[in-house]
From TrEMBL:
A Pfam match: Ser_hydrolase
Coiled coil: none
Keywords attached to this entry: Hydrolase
GO molecular function: hydrolase activity
InterPro entries: AB_hydrolase_fold, RBBP9/YdeN
Protein name, as recorded: Alpha/beta fold hydrolase
Amino acid sequence: MSATPTVLILPGWQNSGHAHWQSRWERLHGDRRVEQREWFTPKRADWIAALEAEVSAAPSDVVLVAHSLGCVLTAHWAAASARAVRVRGALLVAPPQLERTGMPPELADFRPIPQQRLPFPAVLVFSTNDPFSDAGWSQRQAEAWGAEPVDLGARGHVNAESGLGDWPEARAIVTKWMKDLI
């Protein structure tokens, strides 16, 4: 019997506030947030190093729960880390289309977005009216990463303003990956 997996929360640019579903999951389920030294001017190498340290320190396999730039972090880290074999699944929510016109310059260090298939199961959840990506791009990105696409309809950037509350439907995906380990 395997140990219970560690759920790592990977917020995006500027972190996830108190009402964000990621923060709610942290409080409700005891998930562990991967803290970044700099949330407002993120550096890819620093963010990758923080994720690598958390996966290395985890007492068991992990499930990644990423939002926005955290999704791009997941792809960069997976392309470079031998520890990606410890990931049992990744919930990737609202990845930003970084090559899109008008993206904040603070995110430039994360370009280009890796296009290789992720080495673990993934679900990519997107919205049809996300201000940081369009639905067609999100569908293509899911295909590139080998992730199952889930279209939420018009839910903005799938954050606190999207009215998801504790978002039990998405938590069910994480719970399945956790049960698959035991």
